[in-house]
Write a structure and sequence with these properties.
This protein is an alpha+beta fold. It contains 16 helices and 22 strands. The strands form five sheets. It has an eight-stranded mixed beta sheet with strand order 6-9-10-22-21-20-17-11, sandwiched between helices. The longest helix has 23 residues. It is globular, with a radius of gyration of 30 Å. The chain binds one RNA strand through strand 1, strand 2, strand 3 and helix 2.
Length: 599
Amino acid sequence: MTDSLGNLKRTHHCCQLRDTDINKEVVLMGWVQHRRDHGGVIFIDLRDKEGITQIVFNPENSKAVHEKAQEIRNEYVLGVKGKVIARPGDMLNPNMKTGAIEVLIDELSIFSRAKTPAFLIDDRVEASEAIRLQYRYLDLRRPRLKNNILARHKATMAIRNYLDNKGFVDIETPFLTKSTPEGARDYLVPSRVNPGNFYALPQSPQLFKQLLMIAGFDRYYQIVKCFRDEDLRADRQPEFTQIDMELSFINEQEVMEIAEGMIVAIFKKVLDIDLVIPFPQITYDEAMSRFGLDRPDLRFGLELCDISDIVKDAGFKVFANVVKNGGLVKAINAKGCSTFTRKQIDELTDFAAVYKAKGLAWIKIKENEWQSPIAKFFTDQEKDALRKRLDLELGDIVFFVADQPKITNEALGQLRNELARRLGLILDDTYAFTWVTHFPLLDYDETEKRYQALHHPFTAPLEEDIEKLSFDPLAVKSRAYDLVLNGIEIGGGSIRIHSTELQEQVLNCLGIDETEANEKFGFLLNALSSGAPPHGGIAFGLDRLMMLLCREDSIRNVIAFPKTQKATCLLTDAPSKASTSQLQELAIKVSKIEEQEFL
RNA sequence: GGGGGUGUAGUUCAGUUGGUUAGAACGCUUGCCUGUCACGCAAGAGGUCGCGAGUUCGAGUCUCGUCACUCCCGCCA
């Protein structure tokens, strides 16, 4: 039998007692971190959410209690009553906050016995991801995960305080809602009372927050789950949390200012770091040109350099032909890295190939010569131009990618990040923020042969570009902005379209005709024509932000109960089969399941 | 949908060219120990080598398939 709590009342937590508390009678409750049985005296490290206190069972103090304490094992849950005493002179433990004292126990309650845990509750012990997820409640006892979750709480508190002070109203929006076209795959929920019909879980509260602006709430925020049924990554879960906000009567600069203030408040509260604002802003075009990606990592240089004009007539046909066909030839000069071996270069070539680069050309700048499979194709004049453009000096190696602009930028941009990692150019405690602005409004989907919104269909085009919608849609820039931290997109938003006519025009561009538009989001178009204020907003990925704040490399480590890469939960074994009666009630037939187990 | 990595004791891993009884560390159990702090000492238990086929006199090791976890590409407005 185990003991019940009875009248025992906790007086302190396990990180609280100091030498100033000596001689106090205290009651502690917690889990057994370690047991050290010396035959006579037994030491136990008692752990709770706050920390660890050493408790002592001494047979000279109470034989019966000492006897009972023999039984204690790791992870047992105890309540103990005793006296705070000073540790003997040289027995202080400077590594513990409570290391000056210990508690000599007079009364012991064993609330729970515990099976031997699958892994030790200690950050120094490794366990596989699968085991950690299966026993998540044990992993959450360990300091690393526990502290991440506590940091997340600090962050959300800072966010709520900040936004409340700025006049934002926290409003909940429905989870059982309507499927929206465009965007990610929806999670569907069958409706029992409307057989054959389905709700969709929201990919974001986008339309509802716009409706709230039209309703006149002026400033809205929500820390809210969003659902996207797409394949997972280290920084992507099917359900994730957004810090979602929307404001009326503002422009993009004002949204960015508010957002910066919030990020500052979070960093101050969680890390006690004072960030410098405003964050730099660069346009999408500049980001692509200099860094190859729309989420540039500004912690290091290694910028990309366009050399298409220099090589357009070169004897090296690979380069020349790419330029002739509207492609792009760009290069990165890795200063002082001409010592790269053939093997290293091959690895980098394989790396670039992942991003569809057909090859990775290179030139090593050696004494008296350019060592390279392609150097012989260039005239002295071309070499001279390259030397100047790329700042080529003795000991450099320069990498080239030649392809369609999209591939050249992506491959070389990713190579830039990889080179920085390999060369150790990335400093640990640097937080390099940047806004990326002036995204294109649309891009062209080759497989579906139509335009699609880069951000979403409700993003406003730049005023001066609106007329181009009819004759050159791809040249239209939008009023969208992303916030990027260390090469990772942590938030994005836009000024929205608040005019019915413009909204219809953009939908038209996307190939959504009036009938379809009315069917899919006629409610929004109606609302827009019922008095819509100019408005815009932004949403941050709370999980990604916390991942960066906690220096984790997966968002699973900042989510209490995350999913595996196949979107399952190893703890609860979700998703699982539905019973025939459940399915019948929902008017659903399951096909293509090999061995359907009837429950 | 595609590519890479991993899977051996409760946990983390080692396991040679295919060869006798599959090892280590930690954890666990028992005993000893009154000042430890991931205590120490001694003894012990613990294995469907992910699963299924195949090759072979013989498979943890080789081949094929399959499952799980993970990283990436596609996908993710």
